[in-house]
Structures are given as C-alpha cells and as structure tokens.
Amino acid sequence: MTDTSTALADRALIRIAGDDVRGFLQGLVTQDMGLVAPASPQWAALLTPQGKVLFDFILWDDGKDILIDGEEVQAGALMRRLMLYRLRRQIHIGLESGVAVHWSPVSRAHAVADPRLAALGWRWLSEDSGGDASAAWRAHRLSLGVTEGTAELGQDKTLWLECNAAELNGVSFAKGCYVGQENTARMHYRAKVNRRLVVAPIGEAGDRTRASYPELGLMVELRRVEALGDALVPEWMQSLL
C-alpha cells in the first residue's frame, strides 16, 4: 500500500501577531519581509551578531500575522529568543495549534513551491491529516544537497553563507540591517565563503561532520570549497566550483 502521508511531524508553527509584525521581524531575520506574500513563503534565519546561524525557518504570510515554520524541537528556544527582542512592542508570540506543515514531491492544490529550490517539491499549511512524511522529506532534501535544522547547520557554529543561504534564497542583500547583517554582507561582497555545508556518501565521522544518516548512506559535513571531495554537487551548486 502506498504511503500518502504529507504532514511533517517534526515541524511546528509559531504565530507572530500584534503591531507591525513585519517591521519587528525585518530588523531580525535574514530575509526581506516585503517578499513574504500569500503565495510566496520565504526561507530565512535568525543569526548571532557574528553572522552564525541559530535557527532557520520558513516565513508564511497570514494576513497581518506571520507564521514561522520551523523545527518542532527548537520551537520553544526560538520563541524565547524572539521574546528577547520584543522589548515593549505589542507583539504576541505563541505556538499555532491545529495546523500542520505539509510536503509533497508533486504539486497539490493550494501548495506552493519550496522557496529554496523548486526541485524540493511543494509545501502547504492545513489541518494535520495524520501520518508523517518527515523521513521521505529528509531523503528527498538530502538527495538534492540541501541542509536544514540545527543538527545539520549547527547552532552558533556555522556562518549563514556557509549554509548556502545565498544560493538557496535565504538572505536578502538589499534590505536594511538585521542581526548578523554586517559580517554576512562583508563575506558576500568580498567573496570570502571558504567553507560550505555539503551532503556526501557516509564515511568515518570527523570534526567536520555535522550529521550522519546511516539509513540513507549519507552525511552532512562542512568542507572547504577547494576540497569538496566526494560531496554531492547538484546543479544549483555548480556555480560554487
């Protein structure tokens, strides 16, 4: 029997509501909030002041509110971090219930293409229909050399551009300041991205290994651009070589 599950059980939704939600997030995240539209979610991150990734997520338009589609295990930590920046703003930050993130490798009604790479498939938000497509999503994503989440990107370990953020539409170089913007922009304009997160056939883990998936025969490593070795080099990475 074919598994028709589409829900990603390892994802959670955080609702950001209140006064000038987009202005609040514009000064924090790597993506331009002006690009987040009803049929155009955007991949983004919250960085350290040094430009290292803390959390990555997808931003969804929901009228005056924004929904953050991120890792379920990091939802609490992400909300606490956002609350630190809230100060006296009338901004409400809380988990969204009754709605799940869904994914399919083929187009579905009301679905939109993944903002990072069209080949990643289609994504939408709706009620949880049961089942879990997380394993299928991970296998598909890694086969395309795309990394995400704290297990693969690290937390306060990896510069955002080393996560291939520019190539996968996760950063705007035209927006104003945000946390970590100065170092991120400097690296971009000076072409100083010397290391990249890559997916490679599984081997002996070392100090550059971030995650291993024995069931897929793959691992994620941070490698120097001139020494990618046996890493997968999909079409979207060709320009890096």
Automatic annotation (TrEMBL):
Keywords: Transit peptide. The keyword RNA-binding does not apply. It comes from the Bacteria. GO terms for biological process: iron-sulfur cluster assembly. NCBIfam families: ygfZ_signature. This is Folate-binding protein YgfZ.
